[in-house]
Design a protein that fits this description.
The protein is globular, with a radius of gyration of 20 Å. The N and C termini lie far apart (59 Å). The protein is built from 12 helices and 8 strands. The chain has 2 domains: 149 residues, Rossmann fold (3-Layer(aba) Sandwich); 64 residues, Winged helix-like DNA-binding domain superfamily/Winged helix DNA-binding domain (Arc Repressor Mutant, subunit A), CATH 1.10.10.10. Helix 3 packs parallel to helix 4, helix 9 packs across helix 11 and helix 10 packs across helix 11. It has a 6-stranded parallel beta sheet with strand order 2-1-3-6-7-8, sandwiched between helices. A two-stranded antiparallel sheet has the order 4-5. With 227 residues, it is α/β, with parallel strands linked by helices.
């Protein structure tokens, strides 16, 4: 009845809201995003870690997933690796505090349709969600040029990617924090793992990158602008 009335009057019915799942390990941040998006989208689910995110996304199959890059139980890349092949109609938009090159390239290579930082405004985020739902690729302005340069397949970026591909997601997280000067205890607290586990990850990173100690590791990451 409504469709016939719309056709008769020559009006177009309003498009349904974009269905969104929010994935972030901070509940207060998720609440803030909900408030900013308002009625422009329909938030159909939330998750705070990798396992719960996979369950919610598989169950709801939303139009867009707003995905934090660093999460307990792994990271955004792990979620992408699991779900992108299975759910080709679900689009992922990274929403992260990080603008580090390895984070951006990792999730875009993993299948995300865009990457925006948490400094984005509410209206800008709403527009980004709608554009990704429509099939566009969206990046924060300061990241767009970097993404274009990175995917030009320069020798330097290719070499960095090849080295990073040897590392697991958790090893990359430990690498980044160690390179920023965190102690093993601080790394463990940040990633919710024991100091012994941090030591194990650092040893694996050093072995895979053929480095001798954490100071060489920090210099390696700094030289490649990974921190």
């Amino acid at each position: 009845m409504t469709d016939q009335a719309d056709q008769a009057s020559g009006t177009t019915p309003p498009a349904r809201p974009v269905r969104v799942v929010l994935v972030d390990d901070h509940r207060m941040f998720r609440s803030g995003v909900r408030a900013e998006l308002g009625a422009a989208v329909e938030v159909v689910g939330e998750a705070e870690d990798v396992d719960s995110a996979i369950r919610v996304i598989e169950a709801e199959q939303p139009d867009v997933v707003l995905l934090d890059v660093h999460l307990p139980g792994g990271g955004g890349r792990q979620i992408l690796a699991t779900l992108v092949p299975k759910l080709p109609d679900v689009r992922f938009l990274a929403l992260s505090v990080s603008d580090a090159p390895e984070d951006v390239i990792s999730v875009i290579r993993g299948g995300a349709r865009g990457y925006v930082t948490k400094s984005i405004t509410g209206p800008e985020l709403t527009a980004a969600v709608r554009r990704v739902a429509d099939g566009d690729a969206v990046f924060s302005p300061r990241l767009a040029g970097f993404v274009l340069d990175a995917f030009a397949a320069t020798t330097e970026v290719a070499a960095v990617d090849e080295d990073l591909d040897r590392l697991t997601q958790r090893e990359r997280e430990v690498l980044r924090l160690i390179a920023r000067g965190y102690t093993y205890k601080e790394v463990g607290k940040s990633l919710f793992i024991s100091v012994k586990t941090v030591e194990t990850h650092v040893s694996a990173v050093l072995r895979k990158l053929q480095l001798s100690n954490r100071y060489e590791l920090s210099r390696w990451a700094s030289d490649r602008r990974l921190v």
